[in-house]
Amino acid sequence: MLHDLTLEGHGTRLVPLADEHAEPLSAFVDDRLWAGMSSPTPDTPAAMRTEIRAAHEAPSRLAFAVLDSATGEVRGSTSFYDWEPRIGRVEIGYTYYAPRWWGTTNNPACKLLMLTQAFETWGCARVALRADARNARSIAAILRLGAVPEGVLRSHRLAPDGTRGDSAYFSILPDEWPAVRAGLEARLSAAR
Predict the structure, then answer these.
(1) Residue 9 phi/psi, 5° resolution?
(2) What is the rounded CA–CA span in Å between residue 40 and residue 159?
(3) Which residue from 26, 40, 99, 131 could staple onto 48, CB 3.0 to 4.6 Å apart?
(4) Record's InterPro entries (predicted)?
(5) CATH numeric code, 7-191
(6) Gap between the Cα atoms of 118 and 151, Å rounded
(7) Which pLDDT value is given to residue 104?
(8) How far is it, in rounded angstroms, from Cα 121 to Cα 117?
């Protein structure tokens, strides 16, 4: 869905994903980074524009470009999706960053901004995250957030080559949010 939500803090700025982000995103996206996604690797600006259009056409997805707030450099992308305001739930995903941002404060900053929006502005009762069950790096990052493992949905994912994969699900509930927030803030403070 097209939206105008912008989130900023801790050196990171999330802005609505737009065609202008296609070229810098496609410059670092490769098969290794895109592993576990359900669409072909968008490693050209044209292919990335197709991904961006798909994000805009999804009715309950708010897609963001992740920028360095000081330089404007495009670090990656992330989204809220399956947003159900009436029910009070949302998922965070479609997340990928340039490898140079892996293991930095980038992901904790993004998740702190997004989880704050979900719990403190929207009043969500549940925020879920999921990853391909084979993606150990993403699962480790989700667990470092403090998200609670819920289980694995078997044969839940379809890869571009037609193979099927499992999805590992995690969630954070409102009573868990203060501890998750404190953990993210501590990680960001320690990095300063």
Answers:
(1) 165, 155
(2) 8
(3) 26
(4) Acyl_CoA_acyltransferase, GNAT_dom
(5) 3.40.630.30
(6) 22
(7) 93
(8) 5
Sign of CA dihedral 184, 187, 191, 192: positive
Cβ atoms 62, 52 nearer than 8 A: no
Dmax (CA) for the chain in angstroms is: 44
Placement of tokens 């690797």 in the chain: 41
DSSP state of 41: -
Q: What is the pLDDT of residues 125-177, one digit of tens each?
A: 999 999 999 889 889 999 999 999 999 999 998 887 888 999 999 999 999 99
pTM of the model: 0.95
Residue found by looking up tokens 């300063």 in the block? 192
What is the distance between the alpha carbons of residues 86 and 83, in angstroms, rounded to a whole number?
9
Across the chain, where does the E strand assignment appear?
Answer: 7-9, 12-16, 62-68, 74-84, 89-97, 126-132, 148-158, 164-172
Q: How distant, in Å, are the alpha carbons of 107, 132, 180 from that of 142?
A: 10, 12, 11
What is the β-pairing status of strands 89-97 and 126-132?
Answer: parallel
96, β-bridge pairs: 77
Q: What is the spatial distance between Cα 112 and Cα 87, in angstroms, rounded to a whole number?
A: 22
